[in-house]
Write a structure and sequence with these properties.
Largest sheet: 7 strands, parallel
CATH topology of one domain: Rossmann fold
Radius of gyration: 20 Å
Order of helices and strands: EHEEHEHHEHEEHEEHEHEHHHH
Number of helices: 12
Number of strands: 11
Strand order of the largest sheet: 3-2-1-4-5-6-10
Strand content: 5-15%
Mean pLDDT: 93
CATH class of one domain: Alpha Beta
Helix content: 40-55%
Distance between the termini: 52 Å
């Protein structure tokens, strides 16, 4: 499949903006329409260096506005929707779940209805010419016990947070629209992404930026939560593999094929900061670690079995954690203007105080 007019939802966010950069760089015949509401985690700062401006258009709108989405798909003759737009921070879902239900469930419903109206009812394009691709998370599968097999595409859903439950709901909607209406869909469930442009409330950018300024590095519980870490560029490549070669109606797990505990990630970041900033007054950065009260219901372990996408589509991650972390830390140290623009947001500072400053020391 060769798609040429792609609607990206949430393209001003972390993974979405990286996907746009990746697409415009590697696919010279693709036009991108970026639809983003620009909530706290979406910023046009992420797209200041966009290449090939003639092949890119930004529209600020809400994915829950079904009429607007329908008109955009029709007017731009969109042949693929790549749906990133989502509320995604577990801590925020615990303190304010309503936004997650609205964006992740109702927003996905709105997009599915818009695609169904233009592609299937109006028959603007043939079903074999279009694709709705939905990006989901490994968190829909719940938590793994030590030694338990990694998540596969057939693992039963067992979400444990409002965020994970909202994403599980959106996954079910996407599959239902394929089964009921024959909407051509594919899904990917990815593990923890990291890399450039990640909003600095997430673990890796938070540790880098706090270490840079000599602030405490808050580690939830004992820091032994296990995650599979996926460099964002590898994820973007996987999405295109699924779009072009994936089987309609199928889901594919995408992961980095590594599962270090969070404390090892923090230690690796501290070592890189020591290396890159030999004159820092905060060396060794390890001394900034601070164990704090864990989040409620914190899943203990995630691990991804990626054998299906490797076997069927020939995709494997190109970055291991060591290589990916090195590139990521360097990017944040070299892009202080981006950091300052994000931190200048009032909502960002309020959230950091609410979730981290006031979190009790363990």
């Amino acid at each position: 499949m060769n798609f040429s007019r792609v609607l990206v939802t949430g393209g001003a966010g972390f993974i979405g903006s990286n996907f746009i950069y990746y697409t415009l760089k590697h696919f010279t015949d693709v036009f991108i329409l970026n639809l983003d509401l620009l909530t706290y985690a979406g910023s046009l700062e992420n797209l200041k260096d966009i290449p090939a401006e003639a092949r890119y258009q930004f529209v600020q709108a809400d994915i829950c506005d079904q009429q607007t989405v329908t008109e955009l798909i029709r007017a731009y003759n969109i042949d693929a929707v790549v749906h990133f737009a989502a509320e995604s921070h577990v801590d925020r879902s615990i303190l304010g779940p309503a936004a997650f239900m609205n964006t992740n469930i109702l927003g996905t419903f709105s997009l599915l209805e818009a695609a169904r109206a233009v592609w299937l009812a109006e028959k603007k394009l043939k079903p074999e010419q279009v694709r709705f691709h939905h990006i989901s998370t490994d968190e829909v599968f719940g938590s793994l016990e030590p030694g338990a097999p990694a998540f596969s595409e057939t693992t039963p859903y067992s979400p444990n947070s409002p965020y994970a439950a909202s994403k599980a709901s959106s996954d079910h909607l996407v599959r239902a629209y394929h089964h009921t209406y024959n909407l051509p869909v594919t899904l990917t469930n990815c593990s923890n992404n990291y890399g450039p442009y990640q909003f600095p409330e997430k673990l890796i950018p938070l540790m880098v930026l706090n270490a840079l300024e000599g602030k405490a590095l808050p580690i939830y519980g004992d820091g032994m939560q296990v995650r599979d870490w996926l460099y964002v560029e590898d994820h973007c490549e996987a999405i295109w593999k699924v779009l072009q070669e994936g089987k309609v109606g199928e889901s594919y797990n995408v992961g980095g094929n590594n599962q270090p505990p969070n404390i090892e990630i923090v230690d690796a970041i501290c070592a890189l900061m020591d290396e890159f900033l030999p004159d820092s007054e905060f060396r060794p950065h390890q001394k900034l670690k601070k164990f704090v009260t864990d989040r409620p219901g914190h899943d203990r372990r995630y691990a991804m079995n990626t054998s299906k996408i490797e076997r069927e589509l020939g995709w494997k991650p190109r970055h291991d954690v060591e290589k990916g972390l090195r590139k990521t830390v360097q990017w944040y140290l070299e892009n202080k203007a981006w950091i300052n623009s994000i931190r200048a947001q009032k909502q960002y500072e309020e959230w950091m105080v609410k979730n981290y400053t006031k979190r009790g020391e363990k």
